[in-house]
Design brief:
31% of the residues lie in helices and 15% in strands. The chain is of the alpha/beta class and 108 residues long. 21% of the residues are buried.
């Protein structure tokens, strides 16, 4: 939530469990949104950060956000460390976003 502390215009929190998103958003002074609204493209932004386990081995063929909803993001970060290049990151790169992987950029 460093972006919020540094004056980001708006930070949104989505979670597979909406009540958890609301609780976390309240704790850090952000707004909660439904994950389905992110997945459908109704909610958009400049930066998308995935901190779920969706896309991690052995479910590496999954992505938390469909490719069609990634258009318009400038940067997509994925906290998944295996595989190194997730479906989310591949789709984001194809959509023109800068991609950041925890495994490559933090542990590499």
């Amino acid at each position: 939530f460093g972006a919020k502390e540094r004056g980001a215009a708006k930070v949104l929190v989505a979670n597979r469990n909406f009540d958890r998103a609301v609780a976390l958003a309240k704790d850090v002074g952000c707004e909660a949104v439904a994950l389905e609204d992110v997945r459908s493209g109704v909610v958009r932004g400049s930066v998308l950060c995935n901190t779920t386990s969706v896309g991690m081995h052995p479910f590496q063929d999954l992505s938390p956000v469909p490719a069609a909803a990634l258009k318009g993001y400038d940067l997509v970060f994925d906290a998944i460390y295996t595989p190194m290049e997730t479906v989310l990151l591949k789709d984001a790169a194809a959509a023109g976003a800068i991609t950041v992987s925890e495994s490559v950029d933090w542990f590499g």
